[in-house]
Amino acid sequence: MRTVLAALDSSPTARSVLDAAVDLGRLAGATVQAVHVAAGPAGAPQRVADACGVSCRVLTGEVGAALLGALDDPDVVAAVIGSRSRPDDSRPAGQTVLRVLEQSAKPVVVVPPGGAGRAHHVRRVLMPLEGGSEVSTFVLDQLGGLLRDQVDLVVLHVFTVDTAPRMLDRPGPDLAMLSSEFGLRHCPAASVIDLRAGAVPRRIDEVCTDEDADLIVLSWSQSMAPGHADVVRSVLGDTVVPVLLLPLPTPAEPPLTLGPMPVHGA
Amino acid sequence: MSTTGHPPETALDERTFEAVLFDWDGTAVADRQADAASVCERVEALCAAGVHVIVVTGTHLGNVDGQLHARPGGTGRLLLCLNRGSEVFAVGRDGPSLLWRRAATPEEEAALDRAAAATVAALGRRGLVTEVVSQRLNRRKIDLIPEPAWADPPKARIGELLDAVTARLRSSGIDDIAAVVDLATRASRSAGLAAPRISSDVKHVEIGLTDKADAARWAARWLADRGITGTLILVGGDEFGPVGGVTGSDARMLVDELRRSVVVSVGAEPNGCPPGVLHLAGGPHRFLALLDAQLQRRRDRRVPSIDHDPAWVLPLPAAPHLARVTEALGTIGNGWTGTRGSLEEDGPGTLPLFLANGTYRSDESAALLAGPHWTLLQVPPGTTPGERHLDLHGGLLVREADGPSGLRSIRFASITRPRALALRAESREPGLAPSRIELDAGGAPSTGEVASPSAAPQVAVAGEPDGPTITVAAMDGLAQTTSGCSVVERLATWCVSDQGPAPEPEVLGRLSDVSQAGFDLLLAEHRAGWARRWEEVGVEIEGAPDDELAARFAVFHLLCAAPDAGEAAVGARGLTGPAYGGHVFWDADVFVLPALAALRPAAARAMLEYRRRRLPAAQAAARARGCAGARFPWESAESGADVTPQSVRGPDGELVVIRTGEHEEHVVADVAWAASEYARWSGDAAFLDGAGEDLVIEPARWWASRIRRDRSGGGHLHGVMGPDEYHEVVDDNAYTNVMARWNLRRAAQIVEARPDRDQAEAARWRDLAAALVDGYDARTGVYEQFAGYHRLERLLVSEVGEPPVAADVVLGPKRTAGSQIIKQADVLMLHHLVPDEVAPGSLKPNLAFYEPRTAHGSSLSPAIHAALLARAGQTGRALELFRLAATLDLADLTGTTAGGLHLATMGGLWQALAYGFLGLRPGAPALQVEPHLPPEWRSLSLRLRYRGQRITVRAEGDLVTVSCDRSLAVRVGSAPAKRCDPPGRTFAVKGDQP
């Protein structure tokens, strides 16, 4: 039985986490299972789960290890977790959350704080892609398996110094051609291909607003070590919509055409 | 002959040969007494099927024709190369007729006699009695065993004969036949024969002026003239291996010209075969079986083979995500039409397209009209794209799919009959069938509706009921072969009309012509047509096969871009894709036209005719701006009005304003320059005195009314955009001003040569030209690109990224416009186009200044810089940029090749070779040549047309050779012009002629 785990704590974000999990369960055709790690009864998380008609299981032990253990269950297809307890927390995510993100083999949706009470129905998904046919195929397969093609897919490709086109004879028509070709090569299912230039996190934020996206998908190589995952760190820190992190198999393929193309965030 | 291997025997029957060249005695017949009726039957059938049959033998006409007695009547020719390479007869229904004969001089005849006598005498001194038994054409035959028992030994007894001859030689202390050959060779040279041909059939040693190698070379050239080369030729013999220490007589057919041909021996070959020769054995019976297999392939209409010569055949990308790039690269055309290389089944994600030159839609887009998809077929389920190759030499696109279906196909747009289109496909699996020809569905999957091959022709019309249309009519054939293959053959034709569908009788009449010719004849003509074309436009780069192939690829698509009659609208992507709607830019005038002016002058003339017929529209555009003369549009289509879009919707939905149409008016002078450059290459002086005059005069009038004088008298052009589009609206762009100046002076020159014309107007043009500011700083030798350029942020490309880079994307348009980073050659275009109009010696300082500031963010840039850097002697960097341009489409460097090939880059690539690396400049009184080759190239050779004659310019080391049909003047470097008489002359690049 396909299951989406909702990792609830006692913060106000728990409701947003559960809402996101219920929506993900709907899209994924999965049952939602709330979990709470505690030495005693679930308390507030239990009440949140009850209010949504979702069963809540109490896990024991160290929080990170308990959540990772639950994620190992073969039935679990994804998990939803709050990024941090407080909106004023400057970190992109709490230490425990980061550990889960780095070690989970399953996709994890990270819900930002402060979203309590916000109705959450994913309709438009923003997926930044650098391109690369194999990586794109992998990510789109993963996403398709999870969301079952029930959402509008907005693909963002951000040109950086390293990935800018080499030539643009006539910028308007050429960018339109590049956009069309990018879509055909890497994400034929996308309803929008948005090409922009500049700092990747900033463009993700812009397009998320412009396109009214309610979920950002980032794939990554699961390392928060310095020099890695700058985009993931930045997006988790700034975004107001949930972020779905897809673990990439390693090593990522070498770049093909239209610039080097591992998925942003790696 | 392939020395790297040969096809396995089983693969021989899976190959279609276009010519069979073979030895007679021992290969086709057992001996000269054998009944050759079965050979005759096959030879006549092969010729009827279009296969050329060439017999190479040492004997004379009476022997071979008397025995074979074939009287073929098909499109394939029977040639008899006789008398060991001294004669060639063509045999038709009326019998043999002499095609060629090597005529010996009296001195050569005497030398042959002396050589034979000296050889016999030398052998006699060793105690060996031999005799000159006959005097054949151009040779003398010495019998080594003049004994009755060996008077006329059959081929089957060659082993015994060898033993007897060897024994006889050894009895005189001579080791073997090879020793006699050595002796005869020495005697021949002493007798005055510089290149004697000494051969032996064991019984004889022959001294001659020619041998089978000469016959093979002649035949190879004859076939090459018809586009038949390499693996399209089957060479058969029975004596390739050594006999008696002497190279087998048939090994002489292994000439360099046939090095990639398929060679088989059906002889006993007791000492084995040389590398590359497939030993089949089996004698004439086996050889006839090979001919039967070829006849069966013809009867079955199997898909013909191509000559997979790596110097001419381009493998196309197979990766699925590059499918649309492959379609563009694999476009086949003939100047009149272009058919993208889509798979026969096309489907989602594909962009099939059939375009006709100059046929535009009448709606606001004014884009080229997409014609019916004539290549659609239904293929067996599961058929993979497979491998596809573009055969540049033959103008053919071929496909070989892997997997069970084994689908193979070949297609072409006839270069000799522009209305003929042809496609043939075969499959081992059921399911191959003709589809209905469909109209443009925007890449949607084809319906797969099967057309009935036995029904009436299909007719499909794309376009508007009362407007432009493209009609395609096709006749399909479907057959099952004896080996179980399905074969579909489609012959098609096309018509364009600007007032609704073309009348059906006209279309069907053309289809009837195509059908009557038939696929095989169309293919033979097409191959021969391309062979002739390449004879006139060849590119050879020794030492750099990838560069050579890329250059040939560029020339191929240039030739496919423009017809050589009527008018030619050459869009930025030619007929290879939909990008820019097929609109005509300065790309055509400045980048493509100079190449075609030298390669295919009639096509260049047709391009100018396109501009000429749109002069009224250009004059109206000038009037609308309150000016005189003609203002040619930045983007042009059918009407000649400017069809540059005002804005386009960007990929993220924002509106991008396009200002080129309003401001990039240098195109006006570019058109004038193109007309002048055409005249310089072609020598067609009458053009500028007649039909083409207004292409120079009317632009000059535009500039004259457009220039504004300041208080000190200086002339200015305000509010223009130069080639560097990073700086959109500027004043006194050096490129625009100097091109305008050149235009005014050139127009004045034309008028001044005609006393009946208004000389006051010419004087005014001269005055304005002298007044125009050009931004040149004599102190630095650098032109300022436009007024105020030097005050911009001093930024170099190296500070932005590795060029080529779209700097406007990295920096943003605003910062880029505020910097000195430029998109492409701007000032430097002047040094390329009008070197006499810029300050002497200013190329190097301007290269030094602008090259580090050039992002090469335009596909137009690298090739022109390659040309200029080569001229400046910086061949290393020149080669880097040449290779960048060469791979721009082949490696899809811009990411937009899917929308069509960059024709201007291809024209620029040829210009880099001609104007840059060879340093050619056309014009009177002399052709200028000043080569600068990179060390990676051993030599560079271009064939082209110059002032009405075909010439070849070849540079190697410090030498340059000009080959010509008529006398011409050549100026090498700064040396005085020298006369070059046919067949040509070699010049030292530095110093006197060697």
Note down, in words, how this protein is organized.
The complex is a heterodimer of chains A (266) and B (994). Chain A is α/β, with parallel strands linked by helices. Chain A is 35% helix and 21% strand. Chain A has a ten-stranded mixed β-sheet, sandwiched between helices. The model of chain A is unreliable at 252-266 (pLDDT under 50). Chain B is an alpha+beta fold and 994 residues long. The chains are: A alpha/beta (266), B alpha+beta (994).
H-E string of chain A: EHEHEHEHEEHEHEHEHE
Oligomer: heterodimer
Strand order in the largest sheet of chain B: 5-4-3-2-1-10-11-12
Percent helix range of chain B: 25-40%
Q: List the uncertain runs of chain B.
A: 1-5, 441-446
- Cα separation of the termini of chain A: 31 Å
Number of helices of chain A: 8
Structural class by helix and strand composition of chain A: alpha/beta
- Poorly predicted segments of chain A: 252-266
Q: What summary fits the major beta sheet of chain A?
A: 10 strands, mixed
What summary fits the major beta sheet of chain B?
A: 8 strands, mixed
User: Quick one: overall form of chain A?
Assistant: elongated
- The average pLDDT of chain A is 84
Beta-strand residue percentage of chain B: 15-25%
What is the straight-line distance between the termini of chain B? 36 Å
Brief account:
With 266 residues, chain A is of the alpha/beta class. Chain A has helices at residues 13-28, 44-52, 63-71, 95-103, 133-147, 171-186, 200-210, 230-238; strands at residues 3-7, 31-37, 56-59, 76-82, 108-111, 124-128, 152-159, 192-197, 215-220, 243-247.
